[in-house]
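Risk register update: the risk of archive-format incompatibility is retired. Evidence:
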Amino acid sequence: MCKWFRVLLALLAAHLVAFGAWAHSVFHYRITLTSKQKISFNTLAKVMQAEAQSEGTAAAQDLEVELRLSGALTVYVVKEASSTRLLAYALTPTTLTLTTNGATASESEMRALRGELQQATLYAEVDAQGVIRKVWLHQAREVSQGVLRTIAALMQVALPQKEAASWEATEEAPEGVYLARYTLREQKASIWRVQKQRVRYLETQPTFFATAYEIRPQGSLQMDYDSAQRAVRRITGELHLASRVKDQTIGTASLAFEAQRIRVAQLPDAERKRLLQNHRQIAQQAQSLRVTNAEVGENAAVQIARAELGNETYASLKQRWSQLTDESSFTEITEISRKWRALLVVNPQLATQTEHVLQTLAFNTAKAQALIRALMHSQQPESQQALCRLADHFLKRADDEAFNYYVACLALLESPHPPLLRWLVAKARSASPETAYPALLALGAVGRATSPTHQPHARDTAYKTILDRLNNAQSDQEIEVCLLALGNLGHPDSLPVLEPFLSHEDAQLRAVAASSLRFIETPAAEQSLMRMLRDSSREVRLQAIEAFNHRRISQALLPELAQYLREESQKDLRRALIDALWLQRNQLGGVRPIIAQAATGDPDEEIRLYAQGLLQQKE
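Archived output:
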């Protein structure tokens, strides 16, 4: 018995040694990466112009950046647990070039960049499936953190939850959150040959321009993955991303990547201790893999802002701004506003001077609009606080129209900072309806737009504030404002609160409640919207249709929506539903046949012609 016990111990020890070898391994790769990015400021200005129904074109230089590198990538397995793994990525470039608008960086700039890349380390916490959940950056600056984030995202492999030939996973990359589809091509022992594609982007990073956009991915990566070592052996492929606004391409990015593992070694104890020590120093600075507002503000946006400014200075730009009149073209106002935004990104302290100027101007003048847009679009905390102070300034002067306007500007911010939420909560609790109502509406929008990475409880705080106000409402108008605020917020807990109002005897409250379902992405909310399509009130049905413009439509709903389209008597509602469906034609199979049916079978000729025109559009 002792003999077998000793054998068992020996086998156990051997297993632990083998596990320890993978648990604290070092994987060495030879890599090449080519990244090309282009931002079209001309196209973006034209899109904004079209939205404002203005004439003329903006003169702005596009930005093209190309980075080429090859070298050695080292991936350390620093810690191993049953459900998580701590990895560290370090890069040593052997060749490196960077060009901006065709101009190659100087040798001294490249030496500095090479040094920056060599000293940077990205730590990543990986879950049991293989998805990166958190990252930490040690001694990483503007370019190095972008390169390491990109490489970590490219080398990410999410395993299936159960045996499957294909599977999907939600992953992050610097530019946003996307749905990845994996296809198993071949499996030999522990080696999986997999194709990975990015199907669609679910969220995009905050940007330096205010217009909402989508990313359309193409391309794929071919991977050889060792499931025993939980590490990639080889990756090769290309990805192409197009940023689109109103069917116009405002930016493109292409990534060509190849990584070949050349050897595996055991991580020396001294090196592991060094890595752990460095990680402990930054343990409280966890981030997501995608670039969030803070990183955009400190890195890419500053570089782009400097490129936008060119030789422009504060003095020269203020001189141009002083010459604006209310007859100035939209192009001229937009260009000055965009450059002023760039000034605020490069020097955030200018927000105070901008605020003082705006205190003396009516908000609806050309000069004021140029500065207000710059404050809104800069995404700097100083600029957002300046907007809050401007609202306070006009509130004290009893200028309700100006106060409402500046509060509405806050509601449109894409990346709100923490002080903004606190300011709105305080105003939303005001005893004065003139102060509280605009703040409640803005609070809902800001709570939804706030990044959960930087303010994890922001949405809940906004929800509780609005709900408290609703529960103590003293009038139908106050109830309506609170419902609208809940709609702007889209908190999943709102549905039980909204349900009684969906069957309220007042059609106006039913319509508001139906509209307030637009951002609640749950099956129950979707079914409630479908129920509201059968409401006797035309306005309620319209608000239910409009809600579909702001949410994903599930595939299972298409037959019911097609039937509704055939039965709805109001032609403007049929057209509104056609528009809502057409928006999601690329995400939903079966939309085009529904539109084709309307193109031939709708009883109104105008609707038939409209549907035919949609089908004839070139994608």
